[in-house]
Design brief:
The protein is about 10% helix and about 35% strand. The protein has 3 helices and 16 strands. The protein is mostly beta strands and about 290 residues long. The radius of gyration is 17 Å and the shape is globular.
């Protein structure tokens, strides 16, 4: 996974190399450093139908994220911040673990379109988080969408409630690094296995998206609509098979495929069905398929 900062620091201090789930490291490994040097604040690798910017993205202490709204969200609803389950301040959820409605006072640095930090947002709780079937965390903030827009002039990103298709032009937008990575949806992994965790129907990027530690939790934006279709979470770093930092694809017939250097995200179209009025989580709603506690 794209390592959280504290995990990366601890590993680098002891071994000089990286470990499980990729989030942020202040100094990327040699191969990642080359990527960081070539990645620009606005990638030109693939032309976008509409400009993809940093507006609405956030920097966590160890990962990236974004302020998101559901298609039915209203201005006076408490805002949501989306990142990865492996980016939780409490550590990685175990396989099978689902976190719901847990108090949190975590803060997030809100970015404007150019990637400048313009304010600090605060969570009131972790509405939902898991690393089972998917790798996502959703924090409920103490501010509404209207309050954020009024204070900073920034609107949330919208979660698309439709499954993306292969070939879609996408941009991974990292609030932690203030960098973007442009590529296409290469396809989908029936199951993506990394260490003790297994994720369903993961998005596989084409090789142009060489995401690095710290990009975990970044929104994956459909260039044509400007809406979020996935949350960035992992990649195979050195060709390992189904181990930490080296996820493998498992087909429906059990065939295992390892794609060294290829990165992945988890689809988010399933999330809107699990929230009701006032952005309230309701895992019993019709059409909600997110794992339950």
């Amino acid at each position: 996974m794209n390592k959280p900062l504290l995990a990366a620091l601890a590993t680098l201090a002891v071994t000089g190399v990286g470990v499980a789930p990729a989030a942020a490291s202040p100094a990327a490994p040699a191969s990642s450093a080359a990527t960081a040097a070539t990645a620009s604040p606005v990638s030109s690798a693939a032309p976008a139908v509409r400009a993809v910017s940093f507006a609405g993205t956030v920097a966590l202490s160890n990962c990236s994220g974004s302020v998101v709204r559901l298609p039915a969200s209203e201005d006076d609803d408490p805002a949501l911040v989306m990142s990865n389950g492996h980016c939780l301040e409490t550590g990685f959820p175990a396989a099978g673990e689902v976190v719901v409605d847990q108090p949190s006072s975590r803060t997030f640095g809100l970015l404007n379109a150019s990637g400048t930090r313009v304010g600090t947002l605060r969570a009131g709780k972790i509405a939902y988080a898991t690393m089972t079937d998917t790798d996502v965390s959703l924090y409920q903030l103490t501010s509404t969408y209207a309050q954020i827009r009024g204070s900073y002039g920034i609107s949330p990103l919208t979660l698309n409630d439709t499954r993306p298709t292969a070939g879609t032009a996408i941009t991974v937008v990292s609030g932690y690094w203030k960098r973007t990575y442009a590529c296409n949806v290469d396809g989908f992994a029936y199951r993506l296995k990394e260490g003790e965790w297994t994720w369903k129907d993961s998005v596989r990027y084409t090789s142009a998206c060489q995401t690095i530690g710290g990009t975990s939790g970044s929104p994956v934006v459909d260039n044509a609509t400007g809406e979020v279709v996935a949350v960035n979470n992992t990649g195979n770093e050195d060709g390992g098979r189904c181990t930490d930092n080296n996820p493998c694809e498992v087909a429906e017939d059990g065939t295992v495929t390892v794609r060294e250097g290829i990165n992945y995200g988890q689809q988010t179209y399933q999330i809107p069905a699990c929230f009701g009025l006032d952005n309230k989580l309701d895992l019993s709603r019709s059409g909600c398929v997110l794992p339950k506690p």
